[in-house]
Amino acid sequence: MARSPKTNLLELPVELIALIFTYLDDEDVFAGRLANKALEEASFALFGKRFFRKKGFMVTSLALECLRSIADHQKLRKYIQHIWFNPDCFTFARPECAPDDEDSDMDDADELITPFERDPEAPVGEFDKLARQYEAYRQVMRDHAQLLHTNKLETTLAAIMGKLPNITTIGMRRSEEYSPYGWSILQDAVGEDPRVLGPIPSGPVYSLSGPTNLFIAIIKATANAKVSLERLYTDAIEIDNVRDDLPHGLSQATLDAACSSVLYIELNAVKGWLNTRWELASQPYNTLRRPEDFGSGLTRLLKATCNLKELGLQIFPDRKQSHLLAPSARNPDSWRLSYPYVALQRLSSAVSLSNLTRVKLEKVTTTSATLKAFLMPCAKNLESLKIRDVRLLSSAQTSPTNPAVFATYSEDEERPWQTFFSFLLGSCPGLSYILFHHLMHARGTILFTEETPPPMPAEELDFLINHVPPSYGESGLFTKSSAEKGEPLKSFEDLTVELVEEDQILVQANSVAGQTQYAFFSIKDGVKDHGPRSAYPKIAECAVALFESIYNEAVRIFCGKNKWIFYVGGDAPQILRL
């Protein structure tokens, strides 16, 4: 019986070859494309769609040059639809190859020497390796800063985006779970992962964050390149701190040009903790000292999204606050002066997002009245609603010009969530998907039960409200004060730090009048091994919060072996010995 002749793969129709490639793993696709020019051409469409439809990049010149080369490729550029950036590059982190600040007495940062240079017994090869890593670190940090703090990133992105005909989505992702182009190159050069965040600074800063500067560059580049974006998502950006009247800010015209076509936006807004730069006649950012300024940038941005259909919104307080704790202890009304509360209140009264069909709201404190006002314009179109970590207060009225002024109201809304649920039931006929997670009221969390639980005994309720526990898991702060009208205690005889147990520190402040403020910090590995590089960021963060509440001034803390040195304002350093 005669055998049928073997079919050569290259004799198959191009369409069939392309279909075969869709069943191959990535490694086999690469091998097949390298095997033959005809196979490379036949699989090009699959190659472009699979590997270039969505790409992530570090904010470095090397990574942007890679993106530029893709945009310059006549065939490949059309497959790019979605690009995202990791705004981090050793953010808040100092790699092992870099010298400790206290280990160097050089005035010029460029002349810092590594710890190995001071050790005559260190292996020469190890020193050479650290020196190369440190030089690579200095170069990339200089490059990263130049991109974010000048118009270089904006200009580069505008030129690139103008060459991408099908770009519709731009975003940010900052996590080790995602792999932007360029991160492994930096890890090989410096010896550490540039995506890993270090301890968040506990004090105010003098510049907008990396994600905020990246956002400004993206918006300006989109407007200049006249790109019609459909989807935009961000990391935590200080949108309200961005000025609208400066060249490096965002004007309403720029926002309108960049965002008028956006259909989906996921926005994480945070209030930046920024210092006033007294040497400048005009501040390069909004310091947001007044609550009536909260929400201004957020409102301007969402006003520009006139066709928006899907919104994901998180509003964080600044780095000194938690969305789970009231700004003033045991005073639920203090929520009404918080950044998330005032920002959402302003947004709901100033912007009408009538085209929304899907809404996701997270980490805000508000009232049922504000939430209803926010959703009312889109109630008829709303199909999906997700609410996570949201606290509803009773709908007390506040002054629109001064949120600190509370008007009286006749009815106390005991169940604000019930009011909101009734609104959804009666006003949102198309709502087909809902997700509720960790819903909160003024003093606690909502529990969904089939039967109403019995009332709590009065003594237990008093214990839960007024008891001060001995510890609050690594980052808690507790205060006791008999000062009138809640004024902070300012006149203290001494401050002491005491090792209570092997893993617990007590910081105590005694006033002349016998009043006391104190905080407990729980740590895992004890105080005895507390060296200058470990620094216990959680402990230092809490200590800064305590001292600032005492002195009502900015505080900086430096952690050394067996002692903390802290500065109050511009005063001389004070030492706490452990």
Question: Overall pLDDT, averaged?
Answer: 77
Total number of strands:
16
Shape: globular
Beta-strand residue percentage: 15-25%
What value does the Rg take, in angstroms?
28 Å
Number of helices: 16
- Report the biggest beta sheet as strand number plus sense, adding barrel if it closes: 10 strands, mixed
* First-residue to last-residue Cα separation: 93 Å
What structural category characterises the helix and strand content? Answer: alpha/beta
pLDDT < 50 runs, ≥5 residues: 102-118, 399-410, 467-495, 497-504, 509-536
The quaternary structure here is: single chain
The structural domain count equals 4
CATH architecture of the largest domain: Alpha-Beta Horseshoe
Sheet with the most strands: spatial strand order: 1-2-3-4-5-6-7-8-9-10
CATH topology of the largest domain: Leucine-rich repeat, LRR (right-handed beta-alpha superhelix)
Q: Kindly state the percentage of residues in helix.
A: 25-40%
For the record, what CATH class of the largest domain applies?
Alpha Beta
Domain F-box: 6-55
Protein name: F-box domain-containing protein
InterPro entries: F-box_dom (IPR001810)
Could you characterize the architecture of this molecule?
Helix content is 31%, strand content 19%. The protein is α/β, with parallel strands linked by helices and 578 residues long. The chain is globular. Helix 11 (296-304) packs parallel to helix 12 (339-350), helix 12 packs parallel to helix 13 and helix 13 packs parallel to helix 14 (416-427). It has four domains: 9-50; 53-101 and 108-167 and 184-194, no CATH class; 205-275 and 284-445, Leucine-rich repeat, LRR (right-handed beta-alpha superhelix), CATH 3.80.10; 484-577, no CATH class. It has a ten-stranded mixed beta sheet. It is built from 16 helices and 16 strands.
